Amino acid sequence: MELKNKKIIEKMTLKEKALMLSGKGMWKTYGFEKYGIPEFFLSDGPHGMRTQEGAGDWLGINKSKAATCFPTAATIANSWDKNLAEEVAGALGKEAVSFGVDMILGPGMNIKRSPLCGRNFEYFSEDPYLAGEMGAAYVKGIQSKGPAACPKHFAVNSQELRRMSNNSVVDERTLREIYTAAFETMVEKSAPKAIMSSYNQINGVYANENQYLLRKLLRDAFGFQGIVVSDWGASNDHVEGVRCGSNLEMPGNSGTTAKELVRAVRAGKLDEKVLDQRIDEILTVMLPVHKRVEQRKKSFDVAAHHKLARHAAAESIVLLKNEDHILPLSSQKKIAVIGEFAEKARYQGAGSSLVNPTKVENSLDLAGKYFSGKITYEPGYHRNQETDQKLVEKAKKAAVEADVVLLFVGLDEASESEGMDRVHMKMPQNQLELINAVAQMNKELIVVVSAGSVVEMPWIKKAKAVLHGYLGGQAGASAMLDVITGKVNPSGKLNETYPICYEDTPAYAYYPGKERNSEYREGVYVGYRYYDTVKKEVLFPFGFGLSYTDFSYSNLKLSDNGVRFCITNVGKIAGAEIAQLYIEKENPAVFRPVHELKGFCKVFVQPGETKEVEISFEDRTFTYFNVQTGKWEIEEGNYKIIIAKNSRAAVLQGKIYRKGTGAENPYKELPDVYQTGHIENITDEAYEKLLGHRIPDGTWKGELEKNDAFCQLYYAKGAVGRLIYWILDKMLKDSEKKGEANLDILFFYNMPFRGLVNTTHGIFTSGMVDGFVKIVNGHILSGLGKMIGAAILRK
After folding, report:
1. Type and span of the H or E element at 475
2. Backbone dihedral region of 751: left (phi > 0), alpha (psi from -120 to 50 degrees) or beta?
3. In angstroms, rounded to a whole number, what is the distance separating the alpha carbons of residues 706 and 236?
4. Could you list the mean pLDDT of each consecutive 10-residue stretch along the chain, which spans 795 residues?
5. What is the structure's pLDDT at 641?
6. Which residues contact 461 (CB under 8 A, 6 or more apart)?
7. Interhelix angle 302-316/476-484, nearest 10 degrees
């Protein structure tokens, strides 16, 4: 392949080429001014720019420049509004330019396999179609303003526990239909200029050096033409990563792995032309990006972006319950505002996405602008989850004296964070006790939930209304009060199913992965694909959300290209409705969920108005991935076309015939558990039939290896290793007692030993890591010798 930047690359030395493929410090690449190559600046920014001024880190520890904290991806996904997503992402792009950022590390595209993933607040949905559409809109918005978007984490990254050493074992159909489908949609519809590889292994091979993932899928099948950036510390074998299509290893390690590239080329293990190709791909993408960023405006409208954040949050709020039409709430009522979240908002997640906001609203300060009656406030609970009966008693007294109670609850910062998974689906116990106590004092109870993921709601029958704001960003408080008082008619719908309890979730028996493996035994039955197929009772179905008005559907018309139908606002208030299109194969021979989302449209309708809606079929609307042919195939027969308000509320139905592609069913001998969707207890034998091969051995045997994580020092044979584990574990438990998520500890707890090279910025070498592994395995003298020798030789 002819190099597009051949004249530049020919002038570079082998060492300079090797340096170009690793970061220079935490956020920049190496620049070579003499060749016209600038330093490219990368920054976190899934829902707000985290551009650090001083020493860089990837966990949000050190302070960053003030930027707008928009609602998280999990929040915006509830809007089902691609135009809104693109507008928010465009604002992110403007702020990136103002800080001189060339690449925004986002959006997060991983599928919500389990509610317990600590990073679910950064991800759009349990459904790959919705995630792909919203992700494509984000990429368009960011890149329209100049910077490159870098969607993440490719791929099958569903748990935070041991995320750098975990092996995701997944069959090819599930990989293609569920875990890479959103990335494929995004590449096709918005052409991201970069994609971030994930920490984990996929079927035994690390993502950043996975030939199948990075070449066969990403470039050959999806048509990706950008660059691959490793997640921070996700590079396991830099030489192999470069060979397989990874362009940029992040963060920098003072040239340690660049030397490995040089040695590999000189030893004939890696062709220098491979380095040339990777650099050409970087320059082709980043030189024009940097030029556009340099030419753009170096400031942004802080007030306008705050206003947009408020609008985005309001459009994403989900009304889950509204008994006796208690909402919208009259401004004349005497209000008891209860819950610490009203005074100190829970508005974003923790970790690398942590934004230093330009301002933060809270509901308590704003309540007086919305209600003219008496307002009383009681915190009701401590954020550290400790029960305080005095606070509960004061809250009960306030509830008795009020006409209506606004109770602000949800998950605190210690409950969900990058670097950790939740251990259950419950809200903090002190909050549950408060809800029960207040409900006994006043039946006019409105519960406002703030959380980045699904929570159990055993108290829901005690509340007259429930509003879910997810994590609404810096302007989430005014957005919520706009909805509570009717200034905004809620229109959000859930991007994920709300099960009754955690034990009902499809991955319950398999999440998180045990020891080295994370086995995706449930296959394609993720989220509503499972609940709806087996008809399991849920708290709220996928796509659910109420409004202050009502909508009727009529006049369905089917064609080979799509559907048309009418939506009428039969209520008295203007509002927006999200119509959803699902398809269902009649009498399928190939196993599949009962139905799947294949289209949606959000439409704003005035009272009494009727609007015609059109949703087109796409290339993948009727397909499944066939593991024998390696292609997307169509099973011949009739398909139900279902127009619905949510995955369990069909309002219009039709039928259409599709001619098949003639591929043989590869699943004739698959056990019935996959045919029926009852995947709760998949045996090894059944899973191996789905995989098409034996389950890899994921147990820890013998000695620890460099790809094992620090938390696995529990199994260390050497006293030094066990001591390190004891110290880390104690520090982690101490931080949990304080109600904090100590990100430094969490990072090291889940980091593999090889991560010492990047985290020490090259002080540790690969050889020194090998020596360290010997020490923790009990070989102290030989390990020390190995470390000293590697330190001297810098190998």
Report:
1. none
2. beta
3. 10
4. 93 97 94 96 92 63 85 98 98 96 97 96 98 98 97 95 88 98 98 97 96 97 97 92 97 89 96 97 97 90 98 98 96 94 93 89 96 95 92 97 97 85 94 97 98 97 98 98 98 98 97 90 98 98 98 98 98 98 97 98 98 97 97 98 98 97 94 94 96 89 82 84 88 72 74 81 84 91 91 83
5. 98
6. none
7. 50
Burial of residue 550 (CB within 10 Å: 0-12, 13-18, 19+) is middle
User: What pLDDT score does 161 carry?
Assistant: 82
Pairing relationship of beta strands 562-569 and 610-616 according to DSSP bridges: antiparallel
Which position among 44, 231, 280, 504 bears the catalytic label?
Answer: 231
Structure tokens at 373: 């009656």
Short-list 213, 211, 246, CA closest to 231 = 246
Cα dihedral sign, 516-522-527-531: negative
Beta bridge partners of 43: 104
User: What is the SS3 assignment for 202?
Assistant: strand
Q: CB–CB of 633/663 below 8 Å? A: yes
Pairing of strands 551-559, 562-569: antiparallel
Cα 364 from chain centroid? 30
Q: Which tokens is 32 given?
A: 């070579």
pLDDT at 162: 81
324 is catalytic: no
CA 480 to chain centre: 23
User: By C-alpha distance, which of 315, 307, 311, 281 is closest to 20?
Assistant: 281
Q: Residue 122 in contact with residue 61, Cβ under 8 Å?
A: no
How many alpha carbons lie under 13 Å from residue 657 in its C-beta half-sphere? 1
Place of tokens 């203007």: 574
- CA R_g for the chain: 26
DSSP strand pairing (498-499 vs 538-540): antiparallel
Q: How many CB atoms lie within 10 A of CB 39?
A: 15
User: Which domains does the chain carry?
Assistant: 39-248 (3.20.20.300), 303-496 (3.40.50.1700), 549-668 (2.60.40.10), 710-793 (no CATH)
Element (DSSP H or E) covering residue 430: helix 429-441
Q: What is the DSSP string of 120-188?
A: GGGB--SSHHHHHHHHHHHHHHHHHTSSEE--B-BS-----TTTTT-EEE--HHHIIIIISHHHHHHHH
pLDDT at 59: 55
Q: Could you give the CA distance from residue 163 to residue 712 in angstroms, rounded to a whole number?
A: 12
H/E stretch holding 712: none
Q: Which residues are bridge partners to 228 per DSSP?
A: 195
Three-state helix/strand/coil letters over 615-658: EECCCCCCEEEECCCCEEEECCEEEEEEEECCCCCEEEEEEEEE
For residues 329 and 371, give the distance between their C-alpha atoms in angstroms, rounded to a whole number. Answer: 9
HEC secondary structure over 578-590: EEEEEEEECCCCC
Is 172 within 8 Å of 625 (Cβ atoms)?
Answer: yes
* CB of 404 closer than 8 Å to CB of 333: yes
Cα torsion through 189, 194, 196, 202, rounded to 10: 60
pLDDT score for 738: 67
Q: What pTM was computed for the model?
A: 0.94
Q: SS3 of 227, please?
A: strand
DSSP for 46-76, please give it.
Answer: SSS-B-BSSS--SSS-S-B--B--PPPHHHH
279-289 residues labelled b (16+ CB within 10 A) or e (exposed): bbbbbbbbbeb
Distance CA 182, CA 129 (A): 6
**What is the rounded CA–CA span in Å between residue 421 and residue 288?**
39
Structure tokens at 766: 């690969």
